[in-house]
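input
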Amino acid sequence: MQEKRPITDWLPITKKEVDMRGWEQLDVILISGDAYVDHPAFGTAVIGRILEDEGMRVAIVPQPNWQDDLRDFKKMGKPKYFFGVTSGCMDPMVNHYTAAKRRRSTDAYSPGGKAGFRPDYATKVYTQILKKLYPDIPVLIGGIEASLRRVTHYDYWADKLFPNILSMSGADMLVYGMGEQPLREILRLLKKGVPFHKIDTVKQTAILRERNQPPPLNKTWTDVTLSSHEKCLRDKKAFAANFKIIEQESNKVQARRILQDSGDHKLVVNPPYPPMISDEIDASFDLPYTRQAHPKYHKRGAIPAYEMIRFSINMHRGCFGGCSFCTISAHQGKFIASRSEESILKEVEAVTEMPDFKGYISDLGGPSGNMYKMKGKVQSICDRCVAPSCIHPVVCSNLDTSHKPMTEIYRKVDANPKVKKAFVGSGIRYDLLVDSYNKNNDGSLEEYMDQLVSRHVCGRLKVAPEHTSDATLKVMRKPSFKHFHEFKKRYDRINKKHGLNQPLIPYFISSHPGSTEEEMANLAAETKDMGFRLEQVQDFTPTPMTVATIIYYTGLHPYTLRPIYTAKTKQQKKRQHMFFFWYKRENHQLIRDKLKTMNREDLIEKLIGDKKKARKTELIKARGKGKTGIKNGRGRKSFGNKFSTKRQKK
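output
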């Protein structure tokens, strides 16, 4: 049930809605690959509300048709300042294709979950259309696709290197990462009368200059130059070496400006803003969202991504895990930006007032569910840090990993009489909850686990050990699997204490760089021995701006430039993936044959059981006890003679 509200409570998405406000010209027009959901979990809504908060007349064109006469791109006319373009909350290629490059039939960010409402490489397509229609109007791009493609990058779906997305699309400026701070500064300058093309030193933005021109003057910044796009095309080692610089500068408090030549242009990537403080991040979440999809979509069906998060609360941004396959730190940064308790509890109250709220909050979390309020104890140490992860290979001694703030906010949400249950649906870092890895001594780990397990698990808890091999986990920047064993013991003990039966669901990745077929077989055997039948399994998908993607393309680790094995062919990936599903009979012969070629017959019985060997053992035992025969699987007697053995084989 949707609350009845006036259409003007949403930002306008039609010309009629613009006219209702009496606007003759818009200041900014946003083009988005997602349907418009006015909720703080959807980037277009956040940017639109910030523009509105800054006094801008703004409209959104969600999921414009790029294949007809382009009327969607024309209906709002020319904006006064610029077009803002985003492909949406997901990279459109991840949205469209599986790890095997098969086209998906659904789109979680479209009404009814229907696919086909955005193009591949949507940021490029939308921008090129706008530049053709309105060559004199600036285009500012942002969002996950633009952010992670801001330099020369490997594209898995085309299987080649692409230049920066500014060069590809023709856009005038790129905002990378979470865009509130740079956007407000850009708007401040525009309102002062600074022409768009002269805005070139705003932090967390990227622009292009002529190749022979010096970068814009800023006396407080130092520069670092990457190998050019052309050199990267010739030399995979140069491309891999670039990534170390990019990752470190993206996660430093005092970062350098990045320069890279590409064709006739020089890419200029300005340093990022410092992490947002509570007041700043609160300001974004406290904007007047309706928290609902636009009424236009009522007859077209629910938007799956919205249905998933409509009763959720995002408490913080950023992730200091630095996992090799993950893009969170590349987009949101490794430093945690936490909301205040007041802002969180205010949003909880807003959720409870929604007309279809049944008393259940689906998630109290963030990118990693249990990092709220965690930060460096001594900021000056963080200011000098260049490590991409704060918890790999060990937990930094300067990191405050107390779970007390989370336990307290959980209890305060629980105390709301309108909330029956508040679940933690975000993935939690289990390694931060074991004493062997996180040597926190304030007693908060046990207290948090008790609160989590007894009050906030919705039937089962999902965690992501990702692999069991220490060698592969090192490449992943994940801790040894022995810590998962310890976590499971604590989790099971607390469940038992409260008389609960809440299964633990572990996530794993196959075909990740560094992982071999033998390691996958060991993974399957070890997890089976722990009582798991794996469900949450995925093949590694290379996405721009991750360590693992660099390894996949170059065969080299960007920090050591040493070779690392990666499964790349369809057959190699399939062989790794099949070990997850040892319990499927159609995989048994393939697994048996593969383990024999590895000389790992010891794993055959562990994984699938060798029925011939088991049968022989059973017959020997029976003869030793003087029995004349034993019952076979059909309830008939079969004797240990040649004929019955052959039948048993069949």
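quick obs: The first strand starts at residue 28 and ends at 32.
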